[in-house]
Amino acid sequence: MLCIILPREKTSKNRPYEYLSMKKNDFLRGVSVLIMKIIFLTIIAIPLFGLISRIITQIYSTQKIYSVDNAPFSPVAIIFGAGLRRDGSPTTVLKDRVAVGVDLYLSGKVEKLLMSGDNRFLDYNEPGAMADYAYQLGVPREDIILDYAGRRTYDTCYRAKYIFQIKDALLVTQSFHLPRALFTCNQLGINSNGVLANRRSYSRTIYSFWHLREIPATMVALWDIWIQKPVPVLGKPEPIFSPQDTYNP
User: Which CATH number fits domain 64-228: 3.40.250.10, 1.10.10.10, 3.40.50.620, 3.90.1570.10?
Assistant: First the structure.
């Protein structure tokens, strides 16, 4: 006698568990899709914001960039650090910045030079190396001011205003950096114009690196200025000029 055993029908007791399992799978699938969308948008949004930031600063600085010959008078030139060689001497990019600052001084366009750079380590003294080079080129020591905590462009501009109490300045750096420097210092309250320090043709590798670096650096600068507003290393005010100086507006 042949017996056929039919499959047992699922009871209603199992149905709630199946329903919950389906809901859980749908939820996990939805979370996975959401995470992928966030990752995708982040990959697109960050570079896009970097490019937009760069465009904003480029447009902002268009009418504020000069050569040494046609630069307006200003009481001080701010010279930004750009690294040292292994022997502690300025890099080629930094030498050109210092040399242009010296040209401004010797031509009577500025009264003082503010050398701003990094000095977090005993064997790395960026402002000191900049000052030594300016002195070799003919600037008296008493007209060279050192800012040892200019670790970033934002820090340099912030300290120039609140430590050295600068109101007006010429910013000396290369064309790839001037838009960010001008935007930052002006937004932080220093009436600034820029002077180009492109004194030679730099190697394509170095110049490409600096240009690419400016995209994330500019994005961070706008974030700092508009949103985060960090306070860098400060100290007691050290005004470069006294209130009686006629060239300090």
Answer: 3.40.50.620
